[in-house]
Please model this.
Amino acid sequence: MTKVEETACACGTQAKSGRKAVAVDPEIKTSNLKRLRRIEGQIRGLQRMVEEEYYCADILVQISSVQEALRGVGRELMRNHLQHCAAQAISKGSRQDAAAMCEELLDLMYRHAR
Amino acid sequence: MTKVEETACACGTQAKSGRKAVAVDPEIKTSNLKRLRRIEGQIRGLQRMVEEEYYCADILVQISSVQEALRGVGRELMRNHLQHCAAQAISKGSRQDAAAMCEELLDLMYRHAR
Amino acid sequence: MTKVEETACACGTQAKSGRKAVAVDPEIKTSNLKRLRRIEGQIRGLQRMVEEEYYCADILVQISSVQEALRGVGRELMRNHLQHCAAQAISKGSRQDAAAMCEELLDLMYRHAR
Amino acid sequence: MTKVEETACACGTQAKSGRKAVAVDPEIKTSNLKRLRRIEGQIRGLQRMVEEEYYCADILVQISSVQEALRGVGRELMRNHLQHCAAQAISKGSRQDAAAMCEELLDLMYRHAR
Model:
């Protein structure tokens, strides 16, 4: 993914590398941070359930709820990615940037956003 | 699921209700607590990535890795559930207990363990 | 899975091997055959959509509907499996039969019933 | 999705409506038709397995293999969709076309390409 990121990406970038994010919707950022803090609490709840030997099926249902919450965060990140990063690579990048972005999106969809 | 839990379950039970777990494999418990602490760290890492506006695709890959880790916890819980709880409901419970356990397992598999 | 099948399974067996199914619910069998014929029709519909160059997103939605239908068949097979085969291995098989059945179920759930 | 299709889509369109596909990669089309014919054969194989009361777990593994094959078709359709249709909506469509395409992609990813 580095190639896309280096040349054309725009939706956020690593602090370390010094590059600034071209665009992160502030509402998406705020809502994702809120969701992730809630998920952190759910993970601690899971630890307590395991520690206190709760009924396995109840823990499994709770894990499923955390998975859904993570999917929700992923969906918002993907929205930001499509609206800013992918859009820029596709509309302003070279033909190769656009092709690389398509492959990156496919990979995210079929390997990571299951 | 309450019905199964009340009558036949054995693999762990809620502290509140005062019932004791019939069987939780200590290795599964220990390994799941370790995994869940690591997952908690990953969630905090995700918060930092969102906060610092990392590249969306990198955050998505990291979310996918947390989801796999949670699946791993779920799998171990399911192993415990099958070996102890489901086994007891099926071999020692009434015909109805066994049938209720089958439905509970189907529900866990097709609704929650996706 | 052969080990389970050879020693303890009961929910159906390959015609070739000459062993008879101990138990296949006739309603499950009938309904699954009906579903699979409908799915065959949907697959032919997909071929036509691809042939006639339908809008990709519409084909993707149709594929998703076939996937759900296949999940439905899988769920019924799993119900039969749990009620007959797994139940027999767990309640009448040896300790090893029961353990092998648990591993088989975990494998089906986490690798195949996604 | 109709809105996107009407205004900006380009990756294929329904024969009925009389609109021509702007772009369907011929290799993707050929390979998808081949895959779908193979999948049709697999579905008939599943019917036979159910008919002859094969071991449930073996049928479940086979269903999982059909699902992976369908995912493969979906992935190719998505590649075509991104390279042609989405790319056109994003680079040549209006701001609204681009936004509608993003929402359509999110929907496909998170509801249909699971």
Notes: Chain A has four helices and no strands.
